[in-house]
Amino acid sequence: MRLYSLSVLYKGDPKVLLLKAAFDVSCFSFFQRASVQEFLTFTSQLIVERSQLGTRASVKEQEYLCHVHVRGDSLAGVVVADAEYPQRVCFTLLDKVLDDFSRQVPRSEWPSGSPGTIGYTALDGYLSKYQVGHPR
């Protein structure tokens, strides 16, 4: 059971913005890591783009299972995990992250934010904490 990425995005109109992301691509070879990370980012944005406000869903993409939660305020979270990772735990993680993010980052920054401008540092900690069977 493994988590590969945890992302916070803003479902703007017409574009989805990546606000912050954390990745664990250590199980891939050094030469694959950049392209895997790019794939995870692209897939997360695409899933949020295709999801309605106020919805949760799990989508299979290749050998990954992507869990998405798009809140009514346009803040969205995506966890990309392997198929064995429990869905319920993924949605619990997304709820915690989105609540924490919305408390720490002013709503006014969401529509224009980017990973370089958003001052939120907790994603790596969440990803590490929820990485089952791989103590950090």
Automatic annotation (TrEMBL):
<dbReference type="GO" id="GO:0005794">
    <property type="term" value="C:Golgi apparatus"/>
</dbReference>
<dbReference type="InterPro" id="IPR010908">
    <property type="entry name" value="Longin_dom"/>
</dbReference>
<keyword id="KW-0449">Lipoprotein</keyword>
<dbReference type="GO" id="GO:0006888">
    <property type="term" value="P:endoplasmic reticulum to Golgi vesicle-mediated transport"/>
</dbReference>
<dbReference type="Pfam" id="PF13774">
    <property type="entry name" value="Longin"/>
</dbReference>
<protein>
    <submittedName>
        <fullName>YKT6 protein</fullName>
    </submittedName>
</protein>
<feature type="domain" description="Longin">
    <location>
        <begin position="8"/>
        <end position="127"/>
    </location>
</feature>
<dbReference type="GO" id="GO:0005484">
    <property type="term" value="F:SNAP receptor activity"/>
</dbReference>
<comment type="similarity">
    <text>Belongs to the synaptobrevin family.</text>
</comment>
<keyword id="KW-0653">Protein transport</keyword>
<dbReference type="InterPro" id="IPR011012">
    <property type="entry name" value="Longin-like_dom_sf"/>
</dbReference>
<keyword id="KW-0488">Methylation</keyword>
<keyword id="KW-0564">Palmitate</keyword>
<keyword id="KW-0813">Transport</keyword>
<keyword id="KW-0472">Membrane</keyword>
<keyword id="KW-0636">Prenylation</keyword>
<dbReference type="GO" id="GO:0015031">
    <property type="term" value="P:protein transport"/>
</dbReference>
